[in-house]
Design a protein that fits this description.
Layout (H helix, E strand, L loop, with lengths): L3 H6 L1 H4 L5 H9 L2 E5 L3 H13 L3 E5 L24 H12 L4 E5 L8 H4 L5 E4 L4 H14 L3 E7 L2 E7 L23 H18 L9 E6 L4 E6 L16
Parallel strand pairs: 1-2, 1-4, 2-3, 4-5
Antiparallel strand pairs: 5-6, 6-7, 7-8
Bound molecules: zinc ion.
Zinc ion binds next to loops.
């Protein structure tokens, strides 16, 4: 049940048709793992916490640096040198004390990823390394956990929602371009909030709009394109693997 404070806190979203108290209760009872609380993860964690996702696990091994502050908006000057998950937990708990935040200070690897995403209803990608993303993807496919991918570079970004057994997985196509090209802070904020919206749809029983589709956003000309993506029948993660 939702208490009086929750009915007031979430009033504006409770008014949305097909969301209502039932949608809010589903959010309250959900567990989302946000892998990486950098530019993407700061934004998705903030909005998922504000929306009332009952349990959010945040995973990151980094400490806050000055060059993070153009886009990682959970961290301020006073947080320089502190662990990101510790700062993010504190700020998110102040934003919404009614939810549980579990910080995990680790780098996601093939060895620990199963434990890290254990119990998650949805995994939200906020990583910046392909090796971590592929480990997450493989673990989500194995466990049958929906995985919302997001990637950014400069003024461009992309999102897709991977539903194991149904859609292509991340290993079916190579979404990653060259790294280290720089990024405007607004780009991860936009992309992460599309990821958060897909996550809320998944939790509340709506069809995610980007299942089997890749959304490409280009902030240079404000164009947004959505492409169908195909399962790779030789994918060694979600299909039979290479044909011999
Ligand atoms: Zn695949």
């Amino acid at each position: 049940m939702l208490d009086r404070d929750e009915l007031v806190r979430y009033d504006r979203q409770l008014r949305i048709p097909d969301f209502g108290e039932e949608g809010q209760k589903r959010l309250k009872n959900s567990h989302v793992v946000i892998a990486g609380v950098g530019g993407l993860g700061c934004a998705s964690a903030t909005y998922l916490a504000a929306a009332g996702v009952g349990h959010i696990t945040i995973v990151d091994f980094d400490v806050v640096e000055l060059s993070n502050l153009n886009r990682q908006v959970l961290y301020w000057e006073e947080d320089l040198g502190a662990r990101k998950v510790t700062v993010a937990q504190k700020k998110l708990s102040r934003l919404n004390p009614a939810i549980e935040i579990t910080p995990i200070c680790t780098e996601i690897t093939e060895e620990n990823v199963d434990n890290v995403i254990d119990g998650a209803q949805v995994v939200v990608d906020g990583l910046d390394r392909l090796s971590g993303r592929l480990a997450l993807n493989a673990a989500c496919v194995k466990k049958g956990t929906p995985y919302v991918y997001g990637g950014v570079s400069r003024l461009r970004g992309m999102v897709t929602t991977i539903i194991p057994g149904e859609t292509p997985c991340l290993a079916c196509f190579n979404p990653e371009g060259p790294q280290g090209l720089g990024v405007l802070g607004i780009t991860p904020a936009l992309i992460a909030n599309l990821q958060a919206l897909e996550t809320i749809k998944l939790i509340t029983g709506r069809r995610p709009s980007l299942a089997g589709k890749l959304l490409l956003f280009n902030g240079n000309d404000m164009k947004c394109r959505i492409y169908d993506i195909e399962k790779n029948l030789c994918c060694n993660v979600c299909s039979q693997g290479p044909l011999r």
